[in-house]
Amino acid sequence: MPKLLHISASPRGENSDSLRIARTFTDAYRDAHESDEIEHWDLWDGSVPDFAAGARAKMTVFGGGEPQGEEAAAWAAARRAFERFASAERLLFSVPMWNGSVPYVLKQLIDVVSQPGWIFGVDPEKGYSHLLEGRGTRVAVVYTSAVWGPGLGPEFGSDFQSTYFTDWLRWTGLTDISEIRFHPMLTGDRDETRRQAEAHARELAKNF
Fold first, then answer.
1. pLDDT of res. 53
2. Where are the domains of the chain?
3. Where is the Flavodoxin-like fold domain (predicted)?
C-alpha cells in the first residue's frame, strides 16, 4: 500500500500555520488517494533519538569498524529513524521558519538519518553519491514564516530555511520537490495569503 508520511517540525498544534496547511494537504490527498496510508510523524514526540553516541558510531563506521555497546545502541536507534523516513513513497514536510532557518528538531532528524550507506556514499575522487535517488519518491514541503517574505530586504531577515532544507533533500537524491509557501509578512493580508496557500495545497495533493 502506498504511503504518505507527513513529518511535522512545529510544536504549536492548533496554532501552527504550517500544520494547518499540511492538514489541508493530507485531507485532499486522502480524498484523492483513498487506498493510500497516511502517517503523521510529529518530531516533537520524543521519537527522534539523541545522537551523541551515534556521532561516535558514525565515525566508527566511516573507519570500517562495527559500533559496539552504547554506540551500537545509538546506531540501531538511528537506523530505525532512517527506515521510518525512507519507508514512504510520498513525503510531506511542514517546516516553520525559526530564526531564519529550520526548527532544531528537524535538524536533529537530518543529522540522525544522514549516514554513510543509508543516505550518502562518498568517493575521494568523485565526491558524494546520493543513495535515495531513483526511487520515485515525491516530496512536498510547507514553508511558513511570519516576518521574512520574498522581496523584503535583509532588515526583515534571510531565508536559510528553504535554501538549507532544499539543498539537503537534493543531496540525499530526493529531487522531485514541490513547495507550498505561506509568508504573510507583518503588513500583508494574512487571511487571503492563507487561502492561497491552502488552495495550492489542495490542488497539489490531488495528483501527488
1. 82
2. 3-206
3. 3-203
How much is the pTM? 0.95
Give yes or no for a contact between 175 and 138, defined as CB atoms under 8 angstroms apart.
no
CA geometry: angle at 70 spanning 67 and 76, to 5°? 60
Q: Is the CB of residue 114 less than 8 Å from the CB of residue 61?
A: no
Return the exposure string of 90-120: e unless at least 16 CB atoms fall within 10 Å of the residue's CB, then b: bbbbbbbbbeebbbebbbbbbebbbbeebbb
Instruction: Determine whether the annotation assigns residue 94 to a binding site.
Output: no
Tell me, rounded to whole angstroms, the distance of Cα 76 from its chain centroid. 21
- To the question of whether residue 129 is assigned a binding role by annotation, the answer is no
Q: What is the pLDDT of residue 153?
A: 92
**Residues 156 and 147 sit within 8 Å (Cβ to Cβ):** yes
Q: What is the 3-state secondary structure (H, E, C) of 88-104?
A: CCEEEEEEECECCECCH
191 annotated to a ligand binding site? no
* Spatial separation of the C-alpha atoms in residues 115 and 117, rounded to whole Å: 6
Q: What is the mean pLDDT of residues 169-175?
A: 98
User: 3-206: what fold?
Assistant: Rossmann fold (3.40.50)
